[in-house]
Amino acid sequence: QVQLVESGGGLVQPGGSLTLSCVVSGFTSEDYAMGWFRQAPGKERECVSAISRNAGNLYYTNSVKGRFTISRDNAKNTVYLQMNSLKPEDTAVYYCAARATPSETNRFLQGSDYDYWGQGTQVTVSS
At CA 49, angle to CA 105 and CA 18, rounded to 5? Predict the structure, then answer.
């Protein structure tokens, strides 16, 4: 049974930091490209960051460049999203997603590209 389980969300003040983790089970994470998406109330889901199987191809949406860092530890079947200098507009439910791919270098930006999703973790940035 394939599962993706996110953790690390919470309430943080503006300027603070959080690290989200996504642990995958039921498959070998090294065979999958991964992505982090978020959805705020009343807004469409957007791809925040994506990472290829070999971690050599990364993507960040413009609004988080320089503040967020995606990484993966295939030995631990875990993908991370380090979020620094958080802003109120980063408030959303964050989801990790996985897509099986034979390519070690491709990363994917559309939700429809992904095969599996986690349940989401709430991130709230507020004073």
Answer: 130
Span 54-83, average pLDDT: 96
Q: Going by C-beta distance under 8 Å and a sequence separation of 6 or more, which residues neighbour residue 62?
A: none
Report CA 99 to chain centroid distance, whole Å: 13
Q: What is residue 29's predicted lDDT score, i.e. its pLDDT?
A: 67
Measure the CA–CA gap between 44 and 101, rounded to whole angstroms: 25
Cβ burial 36-70 (10 Å sphere, 16+ → b, else e): bbbeeeeeeeebbbbbbbebeeebbbeebeeebeb
Mean of pLDDT values over 101-112 = 94
CB-hemisphere CA count at 13 Å for 86? 23
Query: What is the C-alpha to C-alpha distance for residues 29 and 18, in angstroms, rounded to an integer?
Result: 23
Q: Taking residues 84-89, what's their average pLDDT? A: 98
